[in-house]
């Protein structure tokens, strides 16, 4: 099987029982609005024309609460995809929905239409955060839904947010810890943004909500990423897709928006790895120049956004020069250290995960 591709079909707000205080899916996801049933085939064909035949392809219904849509419309959407599954052009379907719209009957229905992955918009597993964000369910509802999903053989995705009302660094870590205990197959992490026209904007204007800084959001997302990585749970996305609509003037009123939020987090991961590796090679800390070796795809991550990591290491350790070299002999996520062209020590990502402190306390 080749590379994995999703064919995204955005159904903004469709099936949502109410608007969460932070949400305006029409601005976050797609300016086109809700697709008609007859549009689904055209969307699939348009994407398939650009995807290699050997690829693994899923159709993904995102942006709304799929299982709260009228059953007739759910079935109509899924029926449009089914012929492509039977023909082997699409391997399955993934949907996103809310934890409180999952039950036995719904899962049996989804299974009959070849839905393989269910992503839950959990956002937090702290009841105070859920209440302050007007989510309409409690952490216990999330646990129940996740157990049902896993018990029926679906792959489980969990979507979490950092910086919601009443959230904190420790509460986000607690949510990540609890989410990891549910053994999801994948996780997404999003920063909370103040979007124009939302209830959160009203709270922000009144001084009732303070958005997190970019630094705070990146630090927390990094700790969460490492917690999930330590348990071999893939984090498949960090940060919102920087759509044209989202980047339009006035849409993001406040909050830690960055078009490459995920890259900032991965850069922070490499910075922490570099310091652990330096601590394990104290003699190199006395040198004027030092070289880090990474897989070619990790060069920008080790360098950091606008060379942030290079500047930090030079300032803290007094190096005259810090170089980052691409070395195809290393695995992605690994980091080597040396001088010039000479490589002295290599740690795989797993070696770092054993040594990286991740503290999870009650928030």
From TrEMBL:
Specify the superkingdom.
Bacteria
As cofactor, the record names: [4Fe-4S] cluster
**Where does the Radical SAM core domain lie?**
1-237
Q: Which GO terms describe its molecular function?
A: 4 iron, 4 sulfur cluster binding; catalytic activity; metal ion binding
Alphabetical list of Pfam families matching this protein: Radical_SAM, Radical_SAM_C
Q: Where are the transmembrane segments?
A: none
Which GO terms of the cellular component aspect does the record hold?
cytoplasm
GO BP annotations of the record are: tRNA wobble base 5-methoxycarbonylmethyl-2-thiouridinylation
The UniProt entry, under InterPro entries, shows: ELP3, Elp3/MiaA/NifB-like_rSAM, Radical_SAM_C, rSAM, rSAM_horseshoe, rSAM_sf
Its keywords, alphabetically, are: 4Fe-4S, Iron, Iron-sulfur, Metal-binding, S-adenosyl-L-methionine
Instruction: Kindly indicate whether the keyword Disulfide bond belongs to this entry.
Output: no
Name this polypeptide is given: Radical SAM superfamily protein
Q: From which organism does this entry originate?
A: Thermosyntropha lipolytica DSM 11003
């Amino acid at each position: 099987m080749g590379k994995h591709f999703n064919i995204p079909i955005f159904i903004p707000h469709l099936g949502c029982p109410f608007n969460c205080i932070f949400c305006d899916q029409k601005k976050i996801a797609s300016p086109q609005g809700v697709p008609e049933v007859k549009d689904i085939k055209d969307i699939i064909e348009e994407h398939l024309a650009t995807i290699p035949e050997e690829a693994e392809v899923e159709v993904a219904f995102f942006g709304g609460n799929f299982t709260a849509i009228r059953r007739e419309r759910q079935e109509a959407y899924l029926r449009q995809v089914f012929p492509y599954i039977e023909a082997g052009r699409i391997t399955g379907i993934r949907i996103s929905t809310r934890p409180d719209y999952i039950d036995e009957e719904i899962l049996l229905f989804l299974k009959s239409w070849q839905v393989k992955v269910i992503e839950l918009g959990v956002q937090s597993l702290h009841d105070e955060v859920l209440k302050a964000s007007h989510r309409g369910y409690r952490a216990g509802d999330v646990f129940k839904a996740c157990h049902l999903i896993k018990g029926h053989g679906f792959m489980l995705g969990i979507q979490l947010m950092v910086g919601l009302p009443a959230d904190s660094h420790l509460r986000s870590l607690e949510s990540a810890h609890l989410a990891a205990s549910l053994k999801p197959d994948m996780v997404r992490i999003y920063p909370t943004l103040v979007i124009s026209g939302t209830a959160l904007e009203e709270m922000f204007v009144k001084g009732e909500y303070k958005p997190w800084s970019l630094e705070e959001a990146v630090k927390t997302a990094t700790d969460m990423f490492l917690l999930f990585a330590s348990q071999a749970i893939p984090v498949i996305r960090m940060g919102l897709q920087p759509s044209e609509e989202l980047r339009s003037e006035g849409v993001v009123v406040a909050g830690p928006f960055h078009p490459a939020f995920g890259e900032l987090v991965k850069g922070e991961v490499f910075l922490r790895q570099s310091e652990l590796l330096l601590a394990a090679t104290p003699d190199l800390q006395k040198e004027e120049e030092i070289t880090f070796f990474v897989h070619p795809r990790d060069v920008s991550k080790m360098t950091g956004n606008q060379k942030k990591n290079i500047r930090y290491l030079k300032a803290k350790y007094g190096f005259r020069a810090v170089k980052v070299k691409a070395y195809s002999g290393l695995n992605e996520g690994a980091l080597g250290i040396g001088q010039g062209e000479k490589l002295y020590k290599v740690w795989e990502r797993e070696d770092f995960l054993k040594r990286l402190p991740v503290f999870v306390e009650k928030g």
